[in-house]
Each structure stands twice: as C-alpha cells, then as structure tokens.
Amino acid sequence: MKIDVIPYASAIRPDLIKNRNVVVIDVLRASSVMVTALANGANAFIPVSTVDEARQKVVMLRDEETLLCGERDTKTIDGFHLGNSPQKYTRDKVECKTLIFTTSNGTPAMNQLQEATEVFIGSFLNMKALVHRFLELEDVVLVCSGTNNNFSMDDAMCAALFIDEIMNKKAVLLSDLSITLLKAFQKESGNLPLLLKDCYHLNLLKRNGFGEDVDYCLQKNISNIVPEMKNGKIIRG
Amino acid sequence: MKIDVIPYASAIRPDLIKNRNVVVIDVLRASSVMVTALANGANAFIPVSTVDEARQKVVMLRDEETLLCGERDTKTIDGFHLGNSPQKYTRDKVECKTLIFTTSNGTPAMNQLQEATEVFIGSFLNMKALVHRFLELEDVVLVCSGTNNNFSMDDAMCAALFIDEIMNKKAVLLSDLSITLLKAFQKESGNLPLLLKDCYHLNLLKRNGFGEDVDYCLQKNISNIVPEMKNGKIIRG
User: Fold this and answer.
1) What burial class does residue A175 get, using C-beta atoms within 10 Å of its C-beta: 0-12 exposed, 13-18 middle, 19+ buried?
2) Does residue B107 surpass a pLDDT of 90?
3) Are A200 and A174 within 8 A, CB to CB?
4) What are the contacts of B60-68 at 24+ separation with CB within 8 A?
5) Edge-to-edge strand order for the sheet containing B66-72?
6) Which chain B residues have a beta carbon less than 8 Å from that of A176?
7) Which site from A141, A208, B19, B126 is most exposed, i.e. has the minimal number of CB atoms within 10 Å?
8) How far is CA B185 from CA A25, B114, B156, B188, in A?
9) In terms of Cα–Cα distance, which of A32, A140, A45, A137 is closest to A87?
10) How far does B30 lie from chain A, in Å, by closest CA?
C-alpha cells in the first residue's frame, strides 16, 4: 500500500490527490467534532470555507433542519449554534440535523479534494475503524490540515499513528515524509502527551480554555464511525 | 533562538522568510556542490531557475570567466561544463571562475528569498561552521529544498542535525516541524545511513550511478566554508 502525507492544507495540489484515497486529519478539532457528531446522530456536515458562505448555505437549505457550526481563532462564531468543541455536539443538539461547518484549518482542506477517489475523516477517536476501512484499499494520502497554513504536530502524529498501525497489517510503501513522521512518533513510543507537549496549536487551545477538548481529542479508538465525503457532504460511512 | 523549517521549495512564502536569517539546504547535491567549489577557489555561483536563463547569463557576463553548471533529472545538461557532482568541482576547473548554476530543486529555492535578512547555504559538509555562524544570530528559517516539490529526508535530516547541534549551544524555540524532524533524527541517534536508507532521492541518485556523490555529501564537517547569498550571488562567507 502506497502511503503519502501532505503536511498542511495549503500544500494540497491537484496532482497529489487526483484519483487517490484521501484521509483528512484535523485532530484539534474539526475531525474530532465530525466523528463525535455523526456518532450522535447528526445527518451530515456541509464544510464551507467562509463564515459568509455558511450563512448563505443556511438560507439555501431552509427546508432542512440546520445548525451553524464552527470557529475562528479557536472561538465560536457570533450567532452560530455551536463552536468547535466536540463534547458540545451531544445527541439532543445534533440528532437529525445538517451541520453547516466552517473552521480555520480543517474545512478549507476538505474543499480542495474534488479530484480524490474517496475522502475519509481521520482522528485519534476513530483510528482503529479507519485503519480497518483501509485494509481493502491500495493507497492513501493522509492530509494533515495543520494550523494557519503551517505544519502542526497533532495532525502529523495522528497520520503517524495511522502508518504505525496499518504497517502491522499489510505491506506499505512509504514516502519520505511518511517515514519521517513515523520515526518521530516511534521516538516517544507513540506517547501522545509527550509527543505533543510543545505542539503550538495544542498549547494555544489550552491557553484559550479548551484543555478539556484537547484531552477528549487525544483519546484513541472511542468511536467506530468513519466519516466519508460524498457530493460535498460529510456523512457516516 | 527561534527555529522554523520550510519543508520544501514550493512551500516558501514571503511571510515565512521576510526579515529572517535563512539557510538553504539541498544536500543532494546543490548545497554540497557550492560548499566544495567555493572551498576550491570558485569566485561565486549565480543561481538561475532555468536552462535558458543560464545560457543568457553567460552571454551577459562575457567579460568574466564563467562555467555553465547544473543538472536536470540528476544528469549534466547538454553543453554544460559541469553537472551536479561535487567532486567534479576541483580547483583546476573552478578556481577564479563564476559558476552559472541551475538545478531542479536547490536553485529555485534560492531565487525566492529576496526578502530574507541573510541567506546561507547549509549541508552536512559545512555543518559545524554553519552552526558556529549562528551562535551570534537570533533566529533561523531552515529551507529544505526537497525533491520535485516534495519533502525529502536528506534535506530534512540535515536541518535536524543543525537543530540538534545548536540546541547544545544555546536556548531554542522550536516550531512543530522543527520538533518533529529532531525527534525523527534522534530516533536513530543521528545515524545518517540508517535514517536515509529509504530516502527516495538518495536511492534515485544511486540508481542513476551517483552513489559516490551520495557518500561524499553525507560526510559531516569536512569544510569551514559557509556560503552566503549577496546581491543574487553565492559567495564565500
């Protein structure tokens, strides 16, 4: 299985993802929100790039039950129903709802993947299920969303965990970046708190009062949901 | 000291390098060629992006003693005096010459750095001297040239060696990518043949008959030259 990694959203190029199976990783916190909300019965996410686009989408979808969700600068957007804290996406709030979703890093990545074969959403929460889904597939491009168009260790170490796990199950062909992330991950024996101790984005969230979100998002394998993108929507796979 | 890393040439953005001290790293082989040729008495390199540009430059500089140097697809360009094999840049060939130089990965990186404060050239060959040069400087952006617009482990592990060495000498503030490269490097205790065993670019060079170049370029600290870019030329620092 051929494994490539794109280090952050702005490094996505059409030639890197065309006809490839893609996993979008935004551990803190868009991927973790999606896995959680879909597990709690949400119908679908519609990822959009801007706040204005989100508000227009609500009007266009006035026949559906929608919620406006997302963040800017880590915080809930004015007038939106939900921010980017996965634990707030409870069943009583999201069941049977369509979630219009815009985040700083994850959703811009998701809207550049039209030429991919399949697009999945990856996080620590659903890693085991994600790896299982790829046992039957022959290639993958792991797209780390990153932070502010730069490399972010939370996403990179999630990509590394995917590589570490799938290597135990099938033969792989690793790109240079895949090898490098895997070595970094293995240096600390996959100990996430140690690996991510100095991660910029993680520490920013903690400083902004989202330490509980961080702890939640770093849990491994608490969900079997593998979200997939179909026709511009993220749905339960 | 603040340390950032740019993972490959096409990821250079003006905001990442403006008013920063930059080290361009193209281990295999442009950086290693520059260190070697300047040590052997070459006057300067003029990095250009295209083969046509190189040929035009020779005409413009007809009053100087110039050589056309560089590679495409790892090989010497038709009609050029020298390719990209550092050991061919001997004193008898390059002394007092101005070298017009175009390579696939290194020179495009060098021509995007106009807004940097200072630009240096880094390689394994001159690492100790390079680190010494930065003892008095307060920040650095390590620009890995990469291969074909993708991440390449040879450059990344050279960046990691820089970080590993300078951390022993002064306090550092590391970006997420800096931390990741350092952990990967330390996973194999800095053992380059082991770290780079599966590096795509290194193996491509070996397959194309440049195994000796690879061995040469992976030697540490055989030169005290720290090339610098001044007014579009690379000269002995």
Assistant:
1) buried
2) no
3) no
4) B61/B98, B61/B100, B64/B98, B65/B96, B65/B97, B65/B98, B66/B97, B66/B98, B66/B99, B66/B100, B67/B93, B67/B94, B67/B97, B67/B98, B67/B99, B67/B100, B68/B100
5) B75-76, B66-72, B98-102, B44-47, B233-235, B228-230, B118-122, B21-25, B139-144, B2-6, B173-174
6) 147, 150-153, 156, 198-201
7) B19
8) 24, 30, 9, 6
9) A32
10) 19
Cβ distance A125 to A222 under 8 Å? yes
Give the C-alpha separation, A23 to A109, whole Å. 11
Q: Residue B17 is which amino acid?
A: I
Angle between helices A176-187 and B153-167 (to 10 degrees): 30
The single-letter code of the amino acid at B32 is S
Confidence of residue A63 (pLDDT cuts 50, 70, 90): confident
> pTM for this structure?
0.96
Residue that has been written with the tokens 């903690």 in this structure:
A206
Please, are residues B177 and A200 in contact by the beta-carbon 8 Å criterion?
no
What is the count of residue pairs from A and B with beta carbons less than 8 Å apart?
A: 78
The DSSP element (H or E) to which B65 belongs, if any, is: none
Q: Which of B149, B177, B199 sits opposite A176 (nearest CB)?
A: B199
- CB-CB contact of A201 with A28 (8 Å): yes
Write down the ipTM of this complex. Answer: 0.96
List, for residues A75-123, the tens digit of each pLDDT value.
999 999 999 999 999 999 999 999 999 998 888 888 889 999 999 999 9
Q: Which of B187, B188, B109, B120 is nearest to B152 (CA)?
A: B109
* Token pair listed for B60: 């413009």
Contact A141, A4 (CB under 8 A): yes
Alpha-carbon distance values, A15 to A12, A116, B180 (Å):
9, 10, 26
Which of B149, B151, B183 minimises the CB distance to A176? B151
**Segment B17-73, tens digit of pLDDT:** 999 999 999 999 999 999 999 999 999 999 999 999 999 999 999 888 999 999 999
DSSP one-letter string for A10-63: GG--HHHHTTSEEEEE-TTTHHHHHHHHHHTT--EEEE-SSHHHHHHHHHHTTT
Which residues of chain A make contact with B9, given a CB cutoff of 8 A? none
Six-digit token pair at A228?
């997939």
Instruction: Please report where in the chains the tokens 């060495």 appear, as a residue.
Output: B165
